[in-house]
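Ops channel
N.P.: pipeline sanity check, posting one input/output pair.
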């Protein structure tokens, strides 16, 4: 799986991602601890508000940023966004009011909403082999999972010499390193079309996404994952305090175990993809994620809860990791930045709804009842995804053009205006200007 690291450009970008994620993870842990200091048993509600602000930034700004930056060179864009986040993170230790924390976190996440889709859309252009790209996706998910596992551990070590607010200085340093690594990369120019109007650039990703059946299924799966995942991220800090035999480090142990399980899941995906169809893998992962939380009603010991959190991390990773491959199979190169931005916005829309729901239900109904409600919703959305995503879903599709078109760069037909409608041909089928409807590719 690590052969893709032989690609120097990917290796440097991957390293930049690792440092960027580490900084974000340190900030998340510190915020959780500060939220508990400020709110006590209401820390889940405060942290839920912070996560909600994050999701508002992600959902509302990612497509807009993709459209606005369509003509901006990618390398300066990524470096500039890293440096903006450095400045914002460095300000956080100096605030003394909760509203100031909310404001700076929101601005910080606006930068992330612009950075992440642009970064993700670059990878299939740098790693062109699907086998290697699958490895790249697993490594990318592995980086997310390692951040989940080691950020709490690193934060716990730092707390021996620092107060929680000072951890934000470490966040700023990691983004500086990320910017330096991007600076050393030779990146391709913008792959988005620069001849399109702003309105078309803004809507293109959503149009492709919502007209592609497998992506509609992927969206339903993302909501299913968010329902359980938001409970874990929002309420674990409170739940850990209520466990018999728990102490101040129980929260970090739970989240570290969750991260370890997710690592095992990410490492399993390339092997699973060699044996099973991608649809079955992600649906199975989501179904497992929806069923596992029911074990919490068995009144598990601390060890049992640690095992459960590890299993939840495994299922989450198996369900999420192949998503980039689904996106890459669903859009041609110059449309990928827009579709990655749409995925970023739509998938985080689920988290925007579920983060406050997790915090509110945890306070009003109790942690176990909240998890039961969200688990039921997760299983329903998984079943819906099973229905939306067709079992028969080939990449190459025979389709008919009812209007005259020229060759569209797929290489299967002669160039020039000789394609007089109606005519049929077969190639990798994506929604684009010359293939506006999925039905034509039946």
């Amino acid at each position: 799986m690590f052969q893709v690291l032989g690609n120097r450009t990917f290796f440097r970008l991957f390293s930049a991602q690792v440092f960027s994620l580490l900084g974000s993870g340190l900030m998340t842990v510190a915020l959780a601890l500060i939220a508990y200091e400020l709110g006590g048993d209401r820390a889940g509600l405060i942290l839920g508000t912070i996560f909600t602000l994050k999701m508002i930034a992600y959902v509302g700004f990612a497509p807009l940023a993709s459209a606005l930056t369509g003509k901006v060179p990618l390398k300066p864009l990524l470096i500039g966004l890293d440096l903006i986040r450095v400045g914002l993170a460095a300000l956080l230790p100096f605030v003394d009011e909760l509203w100031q924390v909310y404001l700076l976190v929101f601005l910080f996440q606006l930068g992330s909403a612009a950075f992440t889709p642009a970064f993700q859309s670059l990878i299939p252009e740098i790693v062109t082999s699907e086998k290697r790209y699958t490895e790249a996706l697993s490594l990318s998910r592995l980086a997310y999972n390692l951040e989940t596992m080691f950020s709490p551990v690193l934060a716990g070590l730092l707390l021996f010499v620092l107060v929680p607010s000072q951890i934000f200085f470490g966040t700023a340093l990691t983004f500086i390193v990320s910017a330096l690594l991007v600076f050393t990369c030779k990146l391709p120019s913008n792959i988005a079309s620069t001849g399109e109007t702003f309105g078309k650039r803004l809507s293109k990703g959503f149009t492709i996404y919502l007209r592609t059946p497998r992506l509609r299924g992927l969206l339903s799966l993302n909501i299913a994952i968010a329902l359980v995942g938001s409970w874990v991220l929002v309420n674990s800090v409170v739940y850990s305090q209520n466990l018999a035999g728990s102490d101040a480090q129980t929260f970090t142990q739970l989240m570290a175990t969750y991260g370890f399980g997710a690592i095992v899941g990410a490492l399993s995906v390339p092997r699973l993809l060699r044996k099973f169809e991608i649809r079955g893998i992600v649906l199975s992962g989501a179904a497992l994620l929806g069923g596992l939380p029911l074990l919490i009603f068995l009144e598990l010991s601390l060890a049992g809860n640690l095992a459960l959190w590890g299993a939840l991390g495994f299922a989450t990773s198996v369900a999420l990791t192949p998503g980039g491959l689904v996106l890459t199979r669903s859009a041609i190169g110059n449309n990928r930045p827009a579709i990655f931005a749409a995925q970023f916005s739509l998938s985080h829309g689920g988290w925007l709804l579920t983060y406050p729901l997790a915090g509110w239900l945890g306070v009003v109904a109790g942690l176990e009842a909240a998890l039961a409600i969200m688990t039921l919703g997760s299983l329903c959305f998984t079943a819906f995804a099973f229905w939306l995503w067709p079992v028969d879903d080939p990449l190459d599709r025979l389709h008919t053009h009812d209007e005259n078109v020229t060759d569209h760069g797929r290489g299967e037909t002669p160039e020039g205006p000789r394609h007089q409608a109606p005519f049929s041909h077969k190639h990798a089928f994506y929604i684009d200007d010359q293939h506006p409807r999925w039905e034509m590719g039946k």
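N.P.: looks fine end to end. The CA atoms of residues 108 and 388 lie 35 Å apart.
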